[in-house]
Amino acid sequence: METSQSVTPRTCGDSACDLVTVPTRQGLEAVDILRRGAAEGVGPVLHDDGGDTLGFVVPPGTAAAWDVPGSTCTETDGVGPRLPAEPPVEGSDWLLPPGEADLATDPAVLRAALGEAARLIEAADNCR
C-alpha cells in the first residue's frame, strides 16, 4: 500500500471537513487496512444504519480533486473544527467516533487503502 502523505493538512481547521462515502464492504476492508498499516491512523468513520455505506472524514478541499471510482466525496456543511459526539447525519452511527480516531484521514492514504480493499474483495469474489 502506498503511504505517501498528501499536501492537504489532516485537520479540519476552521472549515467543515469533507466526507468520502464508499460501499460498506469496501469501507470495512479499508478501515482494517488503515488500522493495521504503518501509515497515519484513520479518522472518524460514519456508518449508515441501513448498512449500505461508510463515510470517512477527510480534510476540507478533498472533494475538489476526489476521483476514486465507486466512491463519492462531498463537502459537508457546518461541522466546524470539533466533530460532534452524535453523528452529524440522521440515520447514522460512528464506527470510529471522534476522539477515538485522528481528526481526519489523509486522502492519499485513504485512496491507496480503498484501492487495496477493492482488489482484495475482487480476489475473494473470484475464488468462489
Describe the 3D structure.
The chain has 128 residues and is of the alpha+beta class. It is built from 2 helices and 5 strands; from the N terminus they run βαββββα. The protein has helices at 24-36, 107-126, and strands at residues 18-23, 45-48, 53-58, 72-75, 92-96. A 5-stranded antiparallel beta sheet has the order 4-1-3-2-5. Strand 2 (45-48) and strand 3 (53-58) form a beta hairpin. The radius of gyration is 14 Å and the shape is globular. Residues 1-9 have low confidence and may be disordered.
SSE order, as H and E? Answer: EHEEEEH
- End-to-end separation: 25 Å
Please tell me what the overall shape is: globular
Largest sheet report: 5 strands, antiparallel
Number of contiguous helices: 2
Q: Would you report the number of β strands?
A: 5
A few lines on this structure:
The protein has helices spanning 24-36, 107-126, and strands at 18-23, 45-48, 53-58, 72-75, 92-96. It has 128 residues and is α+β, with helices and mostly antiparallel strands.
What structural keywords apply?
five-stranded antiparallel sheet, 2 helices, globular, 128 residues, alpha+beta
Layout of helices and strands:
Elements: E1 18-23, H1 24-36, E2 45-48, E3 53-58, E4 72-75, E5 92-96, H2 107-126
Antiparallel strand pairs: 1-3, 1-4, 2-3, 2-5
